[in-house]
Write a structure and sequence with these properties.
Length: 150
């Protein structure tokens, strides 16, 4: 039985990021074994609601035999997700699903990973830091960010 992982993803507009996930089977005794996803079709989507697609993740099989999948967000992709100059972030639910090679969803569930996908406004606007302080010729601004460890 697949128990979907719940993983929040947060990116900053204009920044590049790479996201990797390793799919493993955990036996009753706690032993972990990679899941071979070679024959699976993978689809990742973030949606405002069931019929309103926000973003389709460019999912790749990095090491299919060992269950490693992922996606990269380029600067160009990030710019399309949040309007330039936007002060607000966007947060929508997402899922990454698998379909077996025979076209049927995995027998228990097609969802492997789910969570929220957040795009945060960047601090750099037209080459300048927003709300920056000038200290000794350098401009500094403090922010907090979340890191997700897999």
């Amino acid at each position: 039985m697949i128990t979907p992982a719940v993983i929040p993803i947060s990116i900053r507009r204009n920044d590049t990021s790479q996201h990797r996930f390793t799919l493993t089977n955990i036996s009753d005794d706690g032993t972990r074994k990679p899941i071979d996803v070679s024959q699976w079709d993978l689809l990742g989507q973030a949606k405002h609601d069931e019929s309103n697609l926000f973003f389709e993740f460019p999912i790749t099989k990095i090491d299919a035999a060992n269950g490693v999948i992922g996606f990269s967000i380029t600067k160009a992709i990030g710019e399309t997700l949040l309007p330039i100059g936007s002060e607000d972030s966007i947060s929508v639910p997402y899922e990454i699903q698998a379909t077996t090679d025979n076209g049927e969803l995995y027998e228990q569930t097609g969802t492997l990973i789910s969570g929220t996908f957040e795009v945060v406004a960047d601090l750099v606007e037209e080459g300048r830091l927003k709300n920056a302080k000038n200290v000794g010729g350098f401009k500094f601004s403090s922010t907090s960010s979340k890191k997700t460890k897999l």
